[in-house]
Amino acid sequence: MQKKLVVRTMIAAVAFALAGGAFAAGGSSGPAVKYPKQGQIGEIITNPYRIAPLTAIIRNGGYKLENVSVRIVPKKDGQEISYKVTPEEVMTHAGIPVFGLYPDYVNTIEVTYTRIDAKGEKKDIKESYQVYAPPVYGEVNGSPSLKSTMFDTTVVKVDPKYKDRLYLVNNLLTAPSKGARFIWNNPTGGAIEWTFYPQNAIIDTTGAVRWYLLPDPIYNMEDPYRAGVMMGFQQGKDGALTWGYGQRYVKYDIMGREIFNRRLPPAYNDFSHSFDQAQNGNYLLRVASSDYKRPDGKNVRTVRDVIVELSPEGKVVDEWRLFDILDPYRDIVIKCLDQGAVCLNLDASHAGKSLSAEDLAKMEKSDTFGDISGVGAGRNWAHVNSVDYDPTDDSIIISSRHQSAIIKIGRDKKVKWILSAPDGWKGDLAKKVLKPITNTALTNALKELEADELVQRIQYNEMPLRVEYSLTEKGRDLLPVFYAISQWGMKYIP
Question: Which CATH architecture has domain 44-133?
Answer without folding.
Answer: Sandwich (2.60)
